[in-house]
Give the backbone structure.
Amino acid sequence: MAIDLNELNSDDRYRTVAMNQFNSITAENIFKPVYLHPNENTFNWVEADQLVDFCETNNKRLHGHTLIWHNQLPSWIENFEGTSSDWDLMFKKHIQTICTHFKGKVSSWDVVNEAFEDNGELRNTIWRQKIGDSYIEKAFVYAHESDPDAVLFYNDYNIASKKAKRQAILELFNSLRQKGVPIHGIGMQMHISIDYPKNKKIENALTELSDDGYKIHFSEIDISVNPNGKDIEPSTELYDCQADKLTAITKLYKEIPSEYQYGMTFWGVSDQNTWIRTFFGREDYPLLFDDDYNTKPVYCKFKETL
Ligand code: 9MR
C-alpha cells in the first residue's frame, strides 16, 4: 500500500490497517525529490527514515517512489543553470546520494516515472531537455551503481489502455536491456475504473510485458467508481462492480509466471485518503476501505481471490 506518514502517525485506524493488512509499502509522497532533496546541498531524510523504521519494525518490504519524475521537483532543480554535463552531474548525485542512503533498506525503486506520453512519444521533461533522451538510461545505470541489489522499475500509467505508449516503452527498454542496462521491471500504475480499461487489454499488457521478461508491479492501484464525476451515492451495485474488477485483474495478475509478479500496491488505504478526491475534486470511492476504515466488498472479494 501507499503510505502517508502523517496519517500513519496521527490516526490509529490507519496505522492498524497499515500494520496488519499489507506486506509492502510505498511512500505516497515523501520519497519524491521535493521532499528528499529540498536544496542542492541538503537532503532531508527525517520523514523517509521514519518510514524505513516502520518497515523494519513491522517487517514490510519498502518500495522507493520515485527518483526521477517531472512533478514534485524542488524549485532549485527547476531553476538549475548549467551545461548538460553540469545537469548530468547534479542528476547523478541526486540519484546516487538517495540510493546509497537507502541501500539495503529499500528493496526496489521506481527509477524513472512517467517519461512517456500516451501517444508513445517521450515526454519533454526538464531532464530530457537538459540531459537528452539518454537521461532514462543514465538513471538506471546510476541507480544500479549505488545499489546493485535493488530491483529497478520504470513506472507509468495507461500502460494497458494505450497500446502506442506500451509499445514505445517496450521498444526503449528492450533495446536498453540488450545493451546491458539494468532494468528489471515495469510498474503498471493501474489508476483504473470499474469499466476501463477492459480486462482483455489488461491481460494483453500483462502478457506482453512478462513475455519480454519484465517483473510487473501493479504499483498504484485504485478503481474509480465515478470516473465522470457525476453526483453519486456509494451503492451496493457500484461496490460489487468494483469488487468484480479487482477480482478480474487479480486473477489475470496471478496467471503471469510467478517470477514476474512483483506485487500489487494500492494507492492509499481508506477512501477518505485518496488523491482522486483532491486532484479531480470529485466524489469517489476507489480503495479497499471506506471513509470509516470499514472493509468494503472489494476488500472481501480481493482477499478470497489472493
Ligand atoms: O498521490 C499523490 C498525491 O498525494 C500528490 O499530490 C500527487 C502530486 O502529483 O502525486 C500523487 O501520486 C502520483 C504518483 O506519485 C505518480 N503517479 C500518479 C499518482 C497520482 O497522481
Observations:
- The chain has a mean pLDDT of 98.
- Residues 236-255 form the longest helix (20 residues).
- The pocket of 9MR is lined by residues 28-29, 71-72, 113, 189, 220, 275, 279 (CB under 6 Å).
- The CA atoms of residues 22 and 227 lie 26 Å apart.
